[in-house]
User: Fold Carbohydrate ABC transporter permease from Georgenia halophila.
Amino acid sequence: MNPRSRSRRWLLTAALTALAALMIFPIYWMAVSALTPGGQSQSREFYLWPDDPTTANFVEVFSTQPVWQWLGNSLFVAVIGTALSVCVSLGAGYALAKFRFFGRGLIYAAFLVTIMMPIQVTLVPAFLVVARIGLVDSPWAVILPTLFDVVGIFIARQFMLGVPDPLLEAARLDGAGELRTFLKVVLPTCGPLVGVLVILGFMTRWNDFLWPLVVLQGNENFTVPVGLSTLTNNPAFSSPWGAVMAVATVTVLPLLMVFLVFQRQFVQGIASSGIK
Assistant:
């Protein structure tokens, strides 16, 4: 390697390292604030590490608020909702990519139009439907309206367009039905796609705030984002930011775990789907 190429490589490495540090710093600052009594809002001086780190914020908020219940609700909504949504996205993506039927293009175009539609447009009709079937203040009120993930269906269709048609025809000639062809031939090739759908679906449901805020009413039924919003005006805390940062630090951990587990499939799936 010549000196010019080596210097360019070192510059690129330094730039990427600085960018990574810039992206990670808010998470680090959040953890430092959680270990500071009252959070960093109690001090006018900015510091990278507290002089006397303590877990008092964690103890206080977890002992006075149903944080474990919030975490359990969020975990239930995220895991069950993501699992069901991935199944729906795989099935719908396979049908739109490999089946020929009347109105397929119109249905696909309608799916794409809904991506541009803000959630505020469908908020009231969706709430009325949920209220009519008696699911208000239930985790299923959060899960069921989000099963049809248009972005997930779009990604699944783009990925399955790359599955060779002769492979499916060979399975059908061997006597396999459509369900068996999908489960035995198509699904084993969808590891990267599943990784993408799991990460995006879990992250979306774990961080969702507006829809759970509308349909969940009891304090113990809140998800973590909704529960966090109640801490800022809670009279139980003299300075709520330490409690907020403590809960936020804990809630980041499931997202990191899911990403670390599926990161390889995520990168492969994004590349295979043709989405940059």
